[in-house]
């Protein structure tokens, strides 16, 4: 059984992002990039399934310019068996639907039984790729997984909802998106990072896969959130605090 | 205990800064068949690199003659370079003819050193050097004969109490014929090795400064690309040696900073607050109105100069760059000498590996470096820092200037070689009558709190890891230092607010907020009891500077 884990290269979670002066996007110059943390969790889960002997092959896939190969090397160092890079020219915008179509084409071509991906990418926070892919493939899906068990040919997935935990059972093939509590990803060891540097990466293009990646969404402007009030005051007592909050209109 | 995984290499280099990467590049240039591994504790190359920086391009020119065509970083030629003496409200510009030439760098370039080292890392990797980020070297490895045989890298994924967490990756042993230490000022391995091999037996104690820096984006009407200003006097006055800098870099950026020499006496002096006060001076504050602060950071620098250079070689390796202490304090330049030391050490290592088996000790390395341009420029300015320490920040600076003029005109100093009296940690005097230095509250536009500033250093630090700032005596701060000095200086000198005295249950306690640490090493240098040891936290921890 083969598992596909799409991994996205995003601005690292620790970086305080800055909007470009012209409002056209985020300034990425010299900014630390890393694997989307939810994708890392998805990859960890896939590797654990393989370590349990329930999965034979874990393929990591990333879409973008050549720099995404750094992310694929990180995936190989963590324990992915193969890496596929769908190459786009630098600065090509791509939206969730185009990503889902590329994944759909790869899944149909290479025959995966499970797609495990992050519930959302921390840069755009859209969370659209997983559900769109499930729709294109006409596969069952479980989103926001916090626990996953593979039983013969079906999955039992505990997912997180606004009102609590929900347990789903779904037949394979399926799409599952990983939430934060699914696992804690492993650190790649130095010897594995070293080995990953010389492993092959399969490079594909959208044209080969017959997918038109022209975006259907256009980003009009990016602006930083309004600055917060900069003054802090020290209050002497709880009563003072309540009075101040009332004065600010935060309490009625 | 499981056995360690081992990686064998010819040369292991600790620290991917200008010295380490220059050595790596040079090794591959002269001995391409050698395996070279560079370890870097930051999560990204340049992530822990912080410098002014106006660099003397000699270092780059000598190492990579074609660098100007290949560079992918901004390098702005200095168009105007001035020294100022600040009073509380006044700004006296020193006429250029009063500045001795040996303080000048006519072909200086304003750069982000972080961007320079990223470029160097790419050059190194293209030559076949293996560079590993997120990898802290935590201890030297020793062979049966006592020689250094490599380093141990840090574990990833331990609980605060030491137990491995899920996903734990144990450290590995990197075994190398030569281990080159390029950790920058006051590195943790350098500290261990200097002690173990008594490398400083014949040299003065190393002296340090703490450099604080902010990057600002200026409105274009206030930005003068290529302009460089250095400031003596206010706000440090006679409280500490040091001074401010303002470099107008590419892209409307201003690199603003203050260096505070760490031989100051007042335990309540806060280098961070002095830096904020510097920005309030009328020479600086008009630049910052309507400007945006982009980033903040701090790093100790080695400033002892000529008399403080230790023995460089030890059996199995050597110290390079600021780990040895090659900064020229008169010219405020260190990067070119760090790069030269990397290059020359690499050539020495390549020669030695060809002819020698077994343990290699580069016995003649120190003599070679001290008679190279590195030593020559340090020798000419050797009395600057001792004069500054002896005669106080203001009179000492004036005397140092005079000494430089005499050196320039007469070809040598009339003072012979002056020496440093003691380590920086020994310079504290008790707070007199409970009077501590007081600082105004930040205004939130030009001046900020430490907490708001540290936020701009992009710190990543897993809280749940063992505390990397170790106290030999946990009662030292409150039991000895406070009674003796009337204050705990760590609370004041730490530029990231790591150390606090808090009241718990009515009793004071000393708290270490290790997750705020920006790896400047000041506590390891300045603690009056030598009680704080800075050890590397998990690889990838600490600041992630961009464009510093």
List low-confidence stretches of chain A.
none
Order of helices and strands of chain A: EEEHEHEHEHEEEEHEH
Return the CATH architecture of one domain in chain B: 3-Layer(bba) Sandwich
Strand percentage of chain B lies at 15-25%
Walk me through what this model shows.
- The complex is a heterodimer of chains A (252) and B (548).
- In chain A, the strands form two sheets. Chain A has a nine-stranded mixed sheet, sandwiched between helices. Chain A has a two-stranded antiparallel ribbon with strand order 2-3.
- Chain A is built from six helices and eleven strands.
- The mean pLDDT of chain A is 94.
- Chain A has 252 residues and is of the alpha/beta class.
- The longest helix of chain A is centred in the first third of the chain and has 15 residues.
- The radius of gyration of chain A is 21 Å and the shape is globular.
- Chain A has one domain: Rossmann fold.
- Chain B has 548 residues and is an alpha+beta fold.
- Among the domains of chain B are: 226 residues, FAD/NAD(P)-binding domain (3-Layer(bba) Sandwich); 103 residues, 2-Layer Sandwich (Alpha-Beta Plaits).
- In chain B, the strands form six sheets. In chain B, strands 1, 2, 8, 9, 10, 13, 19 and 20 form an eight-stranded mixed sheet that branches.
- The relative contact order of chain B is 0.16.
- At the A-B interface, helix 5 of A face helix 4 and strand 12 of B.
